[in-house]
Amino acid sequence: MVLADLGESPALPPPALRDRLRDVRVIAPIVVLAYLAAGIYIVPADQQAVVVRWGKVVDSRVPPGVHWAWPSPIGRVHKLRVRETRRLTLGLDGVEPLNRSQFLSGDRNVLNIRLVVQFAISDPAAFLFRAQDVNQLVANATRGALAQVVAARHVDDLLTTEKVAVQERVQQLAEATVLRYECGVTLLGVVLDSIVPPDDVVEAFRYVAAAREDGDRIVREAESYANGVVPVARGEAAQRGEEAVAYNTQVVNAAAGDAARFTGIADEYAKTPRETATRLYLETMDEVLPKIDKTIVGADPKAVDLQFVKKP
Amino acid sequence: MTITRTYTRLALVLLAVLLVWLSTFTVSESDLVIVTLFGRPTRTSADAGLHLKWPLESVMRFDRRLMVYDPGSSEFLTKDKKNLVIGSAVCWRIVDPSRFLQTVGDVTGAEMRLHDLVWATLAAAIGRVDLSELLSVDPGRAHVQALGDQVRSAATVETERRFGVAVVDLQLKRINFPEQNKYAVFSRMRAERDRIAKEYRAKGEELAIKIRAEADRQRSQLLAEAYRDAEKLKGEGDAEAARVYGQAYGRNPQFYKFLRTLESYKKILNEKTSIILSGDSELLKLLTQGKVPDGAR
């Protein structure tokens, strides 16, 4: 360095100045100052810096602002976007062949799964120096967790009710693995972006969905039948009850009326039996005889020749 | 100050710088360093920072960061003779640089050894389990991770001893059936779907029949109970009526009989009835004989 600064510059200064510049006592402080000034650096608002001196981390979390550190070759500053959420998509995205996104469920069904994992740097120094390719580590940990979780579940649960549970479990397992790697990241979330049967069998899965709909529909129809039948029967039953009440009332009241009438006539009869009886008899005859065909014969009915009795 | 003196000084400074340069070395956080003297390792260092050495010693650096090796997918046979394509990811790092240097030398060499060793260990491990121990819906029966861990521990013992490399983790990230089996697998899946679809329909039918039968039963029960209650009520009415009649008529049975007979006449005698009446009868005596009863005078 000192040597370089002593080299001949293209525009030669006047001899007096040249001599002064050659004076190490003048040059050395300038060089040292310039070197030290090179150590000033700025950390932007969304970043943090890791400062290394002689290869060793001396400050792993330098906040945003203006700072100074030993410049190269003594020191080095690594700036990292620590707040940034990093995102990896596993499967089905064209980056990987299709069959790599296939997983086997516990009941040996093939499923195509696309999964998004989000993570962020939690320890910048570890992120820089503990692993060669953090993205790949996170991807592998997540994929391994997914394979493991899917291998223990029913395909129907995976496709319907268990998605959230799977996400949580995958995140849990992958997080534990990543933590073990000590590569300075933490998982923020795992999202099952897409989980579908392969194209060759997707029709069969749709058929099942349709069948489930059919089953539900059949049950709903039966329920609507039941909802129609039972209330009608209840109405009929109520009607029958009302009719019985009406009959009961009618019969009892009729009896009471008849009995009262009889009692009245019987009371009258008790006072004047003969007259009442005669009156009742004659009244009945008044009513009955006009309608009917009558033949009156002499006092001795045996002497009558019935041949003469005309038939109407 | 003469030019000569200046150059002499310069030469001294340069010599000092060179000496410092040769007798120090730095170790980065991601480095493992072997210090060698004429090619013979004298010591290793993993401490990040500035270190001293003899000027004639030289330094070899190795990356001690975690590395990932993907051996690709291969086909394995389970204990119950099922073919599986399994893809793994091996996380490894150098732990013993001098052994690493002596045996494999570089990362590519290490990956070759890792490939062979992991493949063989994995093949052996998978050959010891049934397919149902990898894929199972029974809780705690699927041992994918356990298998990975088992392979890892077996492999790392070997690699650390032989190559100075530790296998930190082994993820089984792909488990699939081989391509040539896909047709059979898909047929099985379709058949299973078909069965499940039929089951859904049959279950629907079953439930529907139950619901209908239950409704019909409720209907019959309601009507039968209503009939029972109605007839009971009617019977009570009839009984009450009979009691009332009996009570009234019982007071004068003779007169009741008379009255009832007259009622019957009204009912049984109609236009179709022919009757021959004797002139002698009580009703007509007056008509035929012109006799006034004694009491009427």
Descriptors:
heterodimer; A: 312 residues; alpha+beta; Tetrahydropterin Synthase, Chain A; 4-stranded antiparallel β-sheet; 3-stranded antiparallel β-sheet; rod-shaped; B: 297 residues; 3 domains; 22% strand
User: The CATH topology of the largest domain in chain B is what?
Assistant: Tetrahydropterin Synthase, Chain A
In round numbers, the mean pLDDT of chain B is 88
Give the count of structural domains of chain A: 4
- Figure out the total of helices of chain B: 7
Terminal Cα span of chain A: 162 Å
Low-confidence stretches of chain B at least 5 residues in length (pLDDT < 50)?
A: none
Global geometry of chain B = rod-shaped
CATH class of the largest domain in chain A: Alpha Beta
Strand content of chain B: 15-25%
Name the average pLDDT of chain A: 84
CATH 4th-level superfamily of the largest domain in chain B = Band 7 domain
Your description of this structure?
The complex is a heterodimer of chains A (312) and B (297). Chain A has 312 residues and is of the alpha+beta class. Chain A folds into four domains: 1-37, no CATH class; 40-83, no CATH class; 86-197, Tetrahydropterin Synthase, Chain A (2-Layer Sandwich); 206-259. Chain A is 52% helix and 21% strand. Chain A has nine helices and ten strands. Chain A has helices spanning 2-6, 15-22, 24-37, 124-129, 134-150, 155-159, 163-181, 199-271, 273-288; strands spanning 40-43, 48-53, 56-62, 65-68, 75-80, 86-90, 102-104, 110-121, 185-196, 293-297. Chain A is rod-shaped and about 190 Å long. Chain A starts with a helix and ends in a 15-residue tail after the last strand. Residues 1-9 of chain A have low confidence and may be disordered. Chain B is of the alpha+beta class and 297 residues long. Chain B contains seven helices and ten strands. In chain B, strands 6, 7, 8 and 9 form a four-stranded antiparallel sheet that branches. A three-stranded antiparallel sheet of chain B has the order 3-2-5, with no helix packed on it. Chain B has a two-stranded antiparallel ribbon with strand order 1-4. The N and C termini of chain B lie far apart (199 Å).
